[in-house]
User: Fold this.
Amino acid sequence: MIYVATGSDNVRVINGATNSIITTIPVGDLPIGVGINPATDLIYVANQNSDNVSVINGAINSVIAMISVGDQPFGVGVNISTNLIYVTNQGSDNVSVINGTDNSVITTITVGDQPSAVGINTSTNLVYVTNRNSNNVSVINGIDHSIITTIPVGNTPAGIGVNPLINVIYVANSGDNTVSIINGADNSIITTISVGAIPGPIGVNTSTNLVYVGNFSDDTISIISGATNNVIITLAGDPHPLGIGVNPLTNRIYVAGENGDITVIDGISNTIITSISIGGDTPTGIGVNP
Assistant:
């Protein structure tokens, strides 16, 4: 199942087997970030204008809880190993940590200026947060929730993706059209590579070791090889990609375009195989429940 947050204050649910919309779930005001725990079949949606998180039960596709967080929640990351959910609050420059067992906020962590995306390495239990206005990434220890280091990256870091199998983190720098590649073993920058114009969302396919970067201004998807850290393909996609979701089990990549279409990419051939309309809504975030 693919969950697409939209500007119409709802989440569209797409069946990945048929590429059809099966239901629409009302959530909070301006949903953006989508995080999924496939182990519990729960979906977490950050509602930016209502300062809360909607919790969706994937078995019945309905909201079962609303959790108050910080100011202007944006990104959502889920650690399936610890059942903790991390929500960036852009307006209050912090991260709310939610216990997935009882949906309570257990702590709040101060990070950089305007935190946006969250990436989690389940193998090391480290959490990576992009801070757009301070041009760095906060690294959080998932055990005691302390900041263990801050990594300078490019200009205006936006999206982030993690490959826990090789312990590498990818950060899209929307201000200088690059991706910073971080070694998770020592949190150093391995290299910085050029991509398209205003890169934002990132999706990592762990089964193929490929990284997908949506470039907002030139309507393309840069595909990076995790083995060589080079762009191997640039695909023309839907106008203004706003979100990317990956299903490593089916090798399907889902790119949410500003025009209201979800482009589906075959992760083996890296060709576009279809496009799914979400009925005129503007997608604001996307998540895949494999």
About this structure: The first strand starts at residue 2 and ends at 6.
